Structures are given as structure tokens and as C-alpha cells.
Amino acid sequence: MAATTDDRLRLLIERVERLEEEKKGIADDIRDVYAEAKAVGYDAKIMRQIVRLRKMKPDDRAEMEAILDTYKAALGLG
Amino acid sequence: MAATTDDRLRLLIERVERLEEEKKGIADDIRDVYAEAKAVGYDAKIMRQIVRLRKMKPDDRAEMEAILDTYKAALGLG
Amino acid sequence: MAATTDDRLRLLIERVERLEEEKKGIADDIRDVYAEAKAVGYDAKIMRQIVRLRKMKPDDRAEMEAILDTYKAALGLG
Amino acid sequence: MAATTDDRLRLLIERVERLEEEKKGIADDIRDVYAEAKAVGYDAKIMRQIVRLRKMKPDDRAEMEAILDTYKAALGLG
DNA sequence: GGGGCAACAAG
DNA sequence: CTTGTTGCCCC
Q1: Where are the annotated coiled coils located (chains A, B, C, D) (predicted)?
Q2: R_g of chain A computed on alpha carbons
């Protein structure tokens, strides 16, 4: 009988749905923080860039800067 | 003096970072559920479609499926 | 001397950039077609689904649709 | 009669499909250039970063650098 | 409300 | 790691 199988699928689906709801809630919280930041004069777009930069490992940031130099040198850019 | 401003920025950034960590944790949980489903024989890709369909309002879903059928008929996609 | 090396790099980079420009041009064309379709009453989102379905091999598509129906039945998604 | 409508949809779909094929062809060409670059000793990953950097408008790059300074100052990073 | 853009998920 | 999809923000 298929009911057991069906229930297993349903349970898995419902777990996913619950988790996605939680995830959406957090995404909304993040949005709220940016809205609050904007309300006190910060630029949300720039804040996002900062968050991205802070997420990088220091070595990676250093490498990125080195690449920038390499590219400038090899391509003749100031 | 800028310290107050800087702290306010830092606090906002750190709130975002904390929330993003939580969000990532949940995304990982979702991935785990799909992995578990796959391990017992379900097709994760199709499960995702189901989740998407269940997220829609019934009327919207019915309408979408009707349009899809219309287009399939028009293109000879039996 | 590094000039030869630099030029070789520059040439490769420029070839990539030219190709990426072309690619972007075509992506814009695709966008235009969907916009035109929308203007005469078609649903672009569903058209994209059709394009995806037509890309699949008929057998694969049939199988996918069969599984999808099975899951829908199991979840009571009429 | 629906045949005209159907043909219009089919024509639009086929235009999209043709364009997507072209796009894929160019993507393949790009891949080939990177493969060739790798074969003569360049690092494809770094080349991609260079391409990305060159894609930015100089002003944006300058702004990005300013943002980097701002973030370092406000967040106390070296 | 639409179009462009950036994050997210899929392959 | 790259591409396609989706949701968000600005216009």
C-alpha cells in the first residue's frame, strides 16, 4: 500500500516548506536592517558591498588586490 | 566625532552578518532534506517543482497549468 | 622581455571581451523577443517553460511528467 | 481559427531557440579561448577576474576603492 | 508597474 | 564554477 510512501514524501516536503518559511523570515529581517540603516542615512547598496568584502578571507582580499595590480601592469592601466 | 557613527554602522553590519549566517544554516538544512529524500529514492528536482506548485494559490496554479497546456498544444508538445 | 607575454595576454583578454559583448547582444535579443511576445499577449514565464520542455528528449520529458503526476497525486495536488 | 495564433507563438519560440543556440555557441567559444590561454600558461581564473574588473566603468572602480577605504576606516580594518 | 540588477539555486 | 531563475529596488 502506497500510503506509507506517500506520507514519507509529504513529510519531507513539509520539512522543506517549514525551513523555507524560516529562511524567508530571516531574509525579511535582513531587509529590515537595511531599511533601518537607510533611514538613518546609510547607503544600503554600499553596505552590501562591505558585507561582501568582510566575508572574504584576508588572504583572498590580498590576492584580489594583487590581481588588480597585475591587471594594471599587464594591460597598461593606471 | 565619528566613533558614534562608526559604531552604529558596525552594529548594523554585524546584525546583517549574524542574520546571513542563520540564513545560510537554514539553506544547508534544506539541502540536507533534499539529500535525505534522494537517498530514499525521491527525485529532488521534481520535489522542488512540487514545493513551487504548493506555494502558488490554487487558482493561479490552475490558470498557469491551463496556459501551459494551451501552449503545449499549440507547439505540438503532446 | 615581458612585452610579448603581456601582448599575448592582452590579445586573449580582448578576444574574450569581444565574445562576451556578442553574447550580451544576443541575450538582449532574447529579452526583446520575450517583450514582443508579451506585447501580443503571451506569457513570457510560461514560454520559458515551453522552451525548457522542448529542449528535453521526449522520453525524458515523459518520464519527468509521469513522476511529477505521481508526486502530485501523493500530495493531493489535483 | 487558432492556427494563426499558434504559428505566431511557434515563431516566437523558435526565434528564442535560435538565439539561445547562438548564445551557447559563443559561450563555447569563450571557453575555448580560456582553454587556449591555459595551454600557454595563463591562469584562467585570474583572467576571468581581470575581465570582470575591465568591465567596470573607471568611476565605479574608483568608487569601489573609496568604499574599501570607508569600510576599512569605519570597521577598523587594516 | 516594468525593467535592470543582484542574490540564489541548479547543473 | 558558470548559467539560469527569481525577487528586489529604482524609475
Answers
A1: 2-36
A2: 23
Cell of D55: 568591465
Residues of A engaging B, defined by a Cβ cutoff of 8 Å = 8-9, 12-13, 15-17, 19-20, 22-23, 26-27, 29-30, 33-34, 36-37, 40, 42, 47, 50-51, 54-55
pLDDT digits (tens, 9 = 90+) for D19-29: 999 999 999 99
Inter-residue contact A46 to B67 (CB < 8 Å): no
Instruction: Please give residues of chain A from 2 to 41 whose alpha-adjacent beta carbon (CB) lies under 7 Å from any atom of strand F.
Output: 27, 31, 34-35
DSSP state for residue B60 in the 8-state scheme: H
Q: How many residues does this entry show for chain C?
A: 78
* Residue C25, all three cell numbers: 547582444
Q: What is the 3-state secondary structure (H, E, C) of chain C?
A: CCHHHHHHHHHHHHHHHHHHHHHHHHHHHHHHHHHHHHHCCCCHHHHHHHHHHHHCCHHHHHHHHHHHHHHHHHCCCC
State the Rg of chain B over Cα.
Answer: 22
Q: How confident is the model at residue B15 (pLDDT cuts 50, 70, 90)?
A: very high
